[in-house]
Amino acid sequence: MEIKRESELLFSEIIKFRRKALNMKLRDLSILTGLSPFLYRLESGERHQPSVQTVAKIAKVLELDLMFLIHAIIQNDKGDIAHG
Predict the structure, then answer these.
(1) Angle of helix 26-33 relative to helix 52-62, nearest 10 degrees?
(2) N or C: where does the chain have the smaller number of CB atoms within 10 Å of the terminal CB?
């Protein structure tokens, strides 16, 4: 298994890792953010470009820095372009 640096983590990996670190179920996060079915798609990596408002809701509930999450999304987009 490859170990990634924090800056290499995908947005989906970050939110899943942090949610689990807080002992939170996906359903709990869905309720707290109001993003029910959408969250599964984000966390599984199916959806790659959430709105800033969506990212802000997730950041607040998971107690993560908003700019850190936005940076992860931007890095993911660069990787998609480079590998696409």
Answers:
(1) 120
(2) N
State pTM to two decimals.
0.79
The per-residue pLDDT for range 3-19, each reduced to its tens digit, is 455 445 788 999 999 99
Distance CA 75, CA 80 (A): 9
Q: What is the 3-state secondary structure (H, E, C) of 8-40?
A: HCCHHHHHHHHHHHCCCCHHHHHHHHCCHHHHH
The token duo for 43 is: 């966390």
Tens digits of residue pLDDT in 29-62: 999 999 987 888 888 888 767 899 999 999 999 9
